[in-house]
Amino acid sequence: MLCAGIFAIFLFLVFRNVGLFPVVFGDEYLYSMSSRHVHLAASQVSAYIYLVVFRCTNFSGDGFLECARLLNTFFFLSAGPFIYLTARQVASKRLAVFVTLCALVGPTNSYTAYFMPEATYFLAFWCLTWFILAHRDTNSSYYGSIIGVLVAIMAMIKVNVLFLLPGIILFLIYSAFCSSLSAPLKRSAVTVVWLLVAFVATRLAVGYLLAGHAGLDILGAKYGGLASSELTLREAARLAGQMFFVLRNHVIALALLFGVPLISLVDIRPQEAVPSQAGNNLFMLRAYTIVILASLLLVTAYYTAAVGAQGELTNRVHMRYYTFALPLLFMLAAGDLAANSRKLNSYVAWLAAVLVAGSAIISYRYLPTFCVLTFVDCPELAGFTDNKTIFALLGSLGVLAVLLFALRKDMGLRLFVFVFMPLSLLCSAYSVNGELRRRMVPDEYDRAGRSAHDFLGRQDRARVEIVGSNAAGLYKALFHIDDAAAGFLSLADGAPLDPDKIPSDKEWVLVVGNHRIPPEARVEFANSEYSLLRISSVAPAVVPPQTMNFSRPSGDMLVKRSGGGLSPRIASAHASSLRPFERQDLDAREAEPANLRALHRLSLADEWERQRDQSEEWLAGPL
């Protein structure tokens, strides 16, 4: 039944994702360029394993995005067996299958539509979770080593896993002391030491193998700058206040979506004096859920508050930083139901129920008013709150399940697991799928980028500057241009185009929107939405000094290279297979936007060496 369900979801996701235009503009552009066009050593992100795997999408040519979506769907659904095996430790077979299918059919599967590592990270996390919970009593060195290797692999998919390390280590120590095995202190110490050694060794070795010295930077350029920024006392106080605000938003959202399992988390005591295997597994699952969610919430709050200082909104609810772990709450509720465990202490139960129910009631007014909810940042929450009527009905059902859980635990669990949870997931998924399908229709930036891509050759795409007034739209057009060297210039709506602002290495300008075109520019094509211009300010290609010796006359000649490069005639003949790289490109690219600058860090020496090697191979062949 599980295999049939996963196959049905696979077919649904494939047909849903086909034909969609890019959705998450900046992130999809970054990961597409980094995996397909940029050397790993120059990548802005240190997700080297992800980048290497998704570099194979180049085999699909212009269909690379559909190929990436197929890979995402495969990796996402491959997590199903690991979710099932984890749920099977605390629930029956049928209940574990039900929990697994709920986790896969929910709005989290929207991440399969994006050229981003979320789906791959989802698989890696559940592989790690299953191993941690299922092998607690194995040899300490083996247990710690495998966990360290898995965490290192995850760090080269998304660096965010580093923030899970403290929670994982805390759980391993707690698990050792709760185990019936002897010498818990020694066991926990050996496990943690082997974990850290295996993590550092694997991460540095694989990183160096794939990206050279740049691979030794664990955080990468994108997150390294944020982590290394210095905080003054005043900035730290402001950051703490912002973190409290962000945490409040997330707690209210979780109370609305997962009220019953949140109350269950407060009962961390063993269920029986001599617990059964299932009861002990449920106890450890509860402890694991607490440390993982606590770590993720704190990191999410810190990151949201930190980027808020750089101009982003702090009221965005970034649930995508922990949405991969939310099935833990599904299986926790299912495990409680399967265990048919004793009632909670009435005072604890009612206090928790009042707090959770109160937060859920407040969310009806608070979340839509004070928070920015998008189906990319928080698909579960955005879909849940999209329709006010459904929001009110499902919210009331969730509050009823919470109050019933405090009064009659088994009835509250049944209402949550079999009614509220599937209904909320299906309604949220329906809303998010509708939002995704709207991306079947291209906008002006999509049409402009595709038209320019089809009109220009491969070399010319590197010399394109896109001009417009919509930042997200500019990234869309860049995604379609599909060249890491292409740049963009953001102007105010209706502002004229100033040719002096176009970098000197750019020959083509794609203008989207209402911007006055300079008279000296030559219009290649234009319509009411966009125009493609050719400007004459681009500098001629620089050909290094060279000498050539000819051992026989032209026509059937043998060419020997005795100097530093190729003759102008040979270089011109081979121009179609060599990408021009001018010395002034480095200076010009320093003037590009900071978020693109890291994509262009290939050095002149490396590029010239690559072209020289290609030239030698060409010369060695028949002329």
Please give a structural write-up.
With 623 residues, the chain is mainly α. The strands form two sheets. It has a five-stranded mixed β-sheet with strand order 2-1-3-5-4, with helices on one face. It has a two-stranded antiparallel sheet with strand order 6-7. Helix 12 packs across helix 14. The longest helix has 32 residues. It is globular, with a radius of gyration of 28 Å. The N and C termini lie far apart (62 Å).
Produce a short descriptive summary.
With 623 residues, the protein is mainly alpha-helical. 60% of the residues lie in helices and 5% in strands. It contains 26 helices and 7 strands.
Topology summary:
Elements: H1 2-17, H2 25-36, H3 48-54, H4 64-78, H5 80-88, H6 93-105, H7 118-134, H8 140-155, H9 165-178, H10 184-211, H11 220-228, H12 233-257, H13 259-264, H14 277-308, H15 327-339, H16 346-370, H17 379-385, H18 388-407, H19 409-437, H20 444-455, H21 458-461, E1 464-468, H22 471-481, E2 487-490, E3 508-512, E4 522-526, E5 530-534, E6 548-550, E7 559-561, H23 568-573, H24 584-590, H25 594-597, H26 604-620
Parallel strand pairs: 1-2, 1-3
Antiparallel strand pairs: 3-5, 4-5, 6-7
Helix pairs in contact: 1-4, 1-6, 2-3, 2-22, 4-7, 5-6, 5-7, 6-15, 7-8, 8-10, 9-10, 9-14, 12-14, 12-16, 14-15, 15-19, 16-18, 17-19, 18-19, 20-22
Number of helices: 26
Give the amount of beta strand, in percent: under 5%
Tell me the total number of β-strands: 7
Alpha-beta content class: mainly alpha
Q: List unreliable stretches of 5+ residues.
A: 538-623
| Residues in helix, % | 55-70%
Shape: globular
What kind of sheet is the major sheet? 5 strands, mixed
Average pLDDT taken over every residue: 83
Radius of gyration: 28 Å
Q: Determine the N-to-C terminus distance.
A: 62 Å
